[in-house]
Amino acid sequence: MVSTSVINICLIAITLLANGINADSEFVMRELQVDMEESNSEVITVKKEIDIEIKDTKETKYEPNWASIDSRPLPSWYDEAKFGIFIHWGVFSVPSYVSEWFWNYWQGNSPHPDVVKFMEQNYPPGFTYADFAKDFTTEFYHPDDWAELFKESGAKYVVLTSKHHEGFTNWPSEVSWNWNSMDVGPHRDLVGELATAIRSKTSIKFGLYHSMFEWFNPLYLEDSSSNFTTRNYVTQKTLPELFEIVNTYKPEIVWSDGAVGPVEYWNSTGFLAWLYNESPVKDTVVTNDRWGNGCACHHGGYYTCQDRYNPGKVQNHKWENCMTIDRKSWGYRRDAKLEDFLTIEDILSTFASTISCGGNMLMNIGPTKDGIIAPIFQERLKQMGSWLKVNGEAVYSSTPWRAQNDSLSEGIWYTAKKGAVYAFVLNWPTDNLLKLGEPVSMGTESKVTMLGWANALVWSVSGKEIHISFPDATVSELPCQWAWVVKLQNFK
Prior knowledge:
The chain is an alpha/beta fold. The chain has helices at residues 4-18, 25-32, 41-57, 66-69, 76-81, 102-107, 113-122, 143-153, 190-201, 218-225, 232-249, 263-266, 268-277, 344-356, 375-391; strands at residues 83-87, 157-163, 205-211, 253-257, 286-287, 319-324, 359-365, 412-417, 420-425, 433-436, 447-450, 459-462, 465-469, 484-489. A hairpin with a 2-residue loop joins strand 12 (459-462) and strand 13 (465-469). It starts with a helix and ends with a strand.
C-alpha cells in the first residue's frame, strides 16, 4: 500500500505545479523519500514524472544544505533598517494573563499553579482553551491606524505573528480548520489586512513570524513520541502553512520559531532553498536562525540566538535583538504594572548598544484581544519616532565603528557612516562637559556637532581625551529629551 505521507507529498508537489509555483526539486524529492520503503513501482513512476517536470522549470541556485543556504548574501535593506516592530497577537490575548505561553502554563507538562488557580477561580469546569477563541473579537482592530502608528515610530520593518505555538492561525489557513481567524473569533484575515495597510500607507517592510511546532497538535505529538522518525505533522501542517503565507502575503521576513526537532525532520534547508530560488520574494526575503535543533546562532539569514540577545560586541554575522517593551511578556497582559514596562531611556540604551555592535532591534508590542495597541505601547513607539526624526542620520544605514563603546566615559556608544563618527550619549554630562577617550582628531578640519542642534559644539584636546562642551540650554530648547547624538567629522 502507498503510505499516507507519500500521497500527501505528491499532492503538495502537484498543487505547487498546478499553481505555477516552481518548487525546488531537491526539496520535493526529499519530501517524496519519506516512507518510500512502503512504496510500490507506481509511486516511483509518479516520483520520476514530478521530478522531470520540476527540473524543466528552474535550475536550482541554492542547494538544500547549510553550506549553500548560508552562502546567500543578506539583502542590504535589512542591515540598513536597524529598527523593526514585533507584534505578538493571538488567542492568548484573550486570557491575557502571565504571557503568550498561557495554554502551556495551564495544561502543559509542568502546569504553573498560579495559572491553574486563575482558571479555577474565573472559568467554569470543562472550559477549554479553544473556548477563548470566540472572544478574540478584534472589533477595534483598524489596520490603517496601526500602519500610521508604525510609520510614525520610525520603524523600517514589522513582523506580525501569523501563528504562535498555540496553533491558531491569524489568516484563513486551509490546513487549520476551525482554528483560524476566519472560521472563529474575528472572522477576518488579520494578516492580510495588515499587509495591505502597511504596503498601501507606508514604505515599511512587512514580515511574518511563524511557529513551526504546536504544543498540543496530535500530529506533532505523535511525531515527537516517535523520536521524529515520522513526519506527518510537517507534511500536513507546517510546510503547507509556510507555502501559504509566502505565496499569499509575500512577506519580506520569514521569522521562524519553535522548530523543536532535527532540521531533517522539518526539511528546513529544502524549504529555504525553495524560498531563495523560486518564491515570489526570493530576491528580497530575509530569514532568521530558528529552523531546527542546533541552528540558532549558527545557520540562517541573520542570527537571533536567543530572546533579548545583546552581546555587547561586534559579531561576525548579522544579528537581531528581539526584545519586549513589557519586561515579562510578549503578549498583552491585563495585570501588567507600570514598572513592568521599559522606559524610553531603557529602550534607547538597548537600541544604541545593539546598533553599535552591528545588530538590529526588533521591539515587541502586544495588542489586546479587541485589537487595541495599549497607550503605553503607543507612547513608546511615538517616543522612538520623535527621537529618530532627530537622530536617524546616525542610525539608518550606519555601520559599527572601530570602537563600540567609549573607554573613558560610560553610556557612550558609537556608529559610523560616510566618514563621520556618531557618539550616542545616554546621559547628559555633568557640568555640560563630555569627555571621550576613543576619538582622535585628525587636525584643524575636525568638527563636532550635535544632531538637531544648529550650532557647532566647542571642543578641545586634553592629552588623549576629547572634551566637548554641551549646549547651555533649557530642556525645551534641546533637539530631543533623551540620548543625544554627537557627530564627529574628521576624527579617527
